[in-house]
């Protein structure tokens, strides 16, 4: 099914077609390409040439956009999606407190529990659409994102996905618009960290039954090749394991010995693994991804996670938009967010709101066209920039964080370099 911006002009179960607007100014920064501004009425050149005057864009009609959040309220993914959900809710509240998007369009949020199960995710997504959701918002689980994107494609519903571990999903589902960096960008940065630390021989641990973990492993191998890193061994584990003796035995007996271990295992598994690894006398440096980004990792891992490095979405460095978001989050929830997932959730909603403003419409075709033509949004994670030309994957900084003295510290933040092409 074709869900390109042209196809999405047909109304179906998408956002109601409202009039075009010039009433911007909610503070969500958005700027499109010159072509987009011209087509939206930003240029009067044609009118001057013909001696006519271009009509002023109509005011955005007041209304409501219903967001269907398919998330994991229960199951093993719930700890990650709880802060993500809070960030989404906070952004909705902040936008509505300003009178809505463009001061006219309020956002309404409905949740559905996918129970950390990809099959259930598709069912829940369909229920949310049947309940009137105009936009589907995905949880951070790659298997579930595919299920949700399939429903969005079939029902012609716009799909915003905060996480983006599989950068090939947009090529399969036109309705799907991710916000975070793809696994190819994340692993490119991770491979650079291994190389900069003097690593060469890499050992990969993966769970082939979890798509997110498998994708990180696959993309890291591609990034490693261009950086002269050698994968000297791979092994598997099962998410939720309590005993990593078999994996540790293989690591100890590996020849050549690896000087870096790379894995996208989630917490608390990663903390349990590192405790057992260090207890066995193996001090090989560990490199992980956003599944590491939780205070639970520090609590469970203790001294064993010291020195571990991981890539994630953001960090509250002094003066950064992420720091301001943390302050807003503390005011709302009485505590710091657990990792960068909350800021990612808020950023996803701000991207949607800015696309509505840039499109000067809440019609889904217009929103998709604004993203497709190019859009830059200031978010709690910094600039999220959709490059235009129909590209669904935005440019967004990759954060590198390390455990130092029992806490997370920022190592680097910036665009990924030499990223493998999806």
Automatic annotation (TrEMBL):
Which SUPFAM superfamilies is this protein grouped with?
Answer: Periplasmic binding protein-like I
- What's the superkingdom here? Bacteria
Kindly state which keywords UniProt assigns to this record, in alphabetical order. Amino-acid transport, Signal, Transport
The Leucine-binding protein domain sits at 64-406
Tell me the InterPro entries matching this sequence.
Answer: BCAA_transport (IPR051010), Leu-bd (IPR028081), Leu_Ile_Val-bd (IPR000709), Peripla_BP_I (IPR028082)
Signal peptide bounds: 1-29
Note the Gene3D superfamilies from the entry: 3.40.50.2300
In its keyword annotation, does this UniProt entry include Transport?
yes
Its family remark reads: Belongs to the leucine-binding protein family.
| Name the UniProt record assigns to this protein | ABC transporter substrate-binding protein
Instruction: State the species of origin.
Output: Conexibacter stalactiti
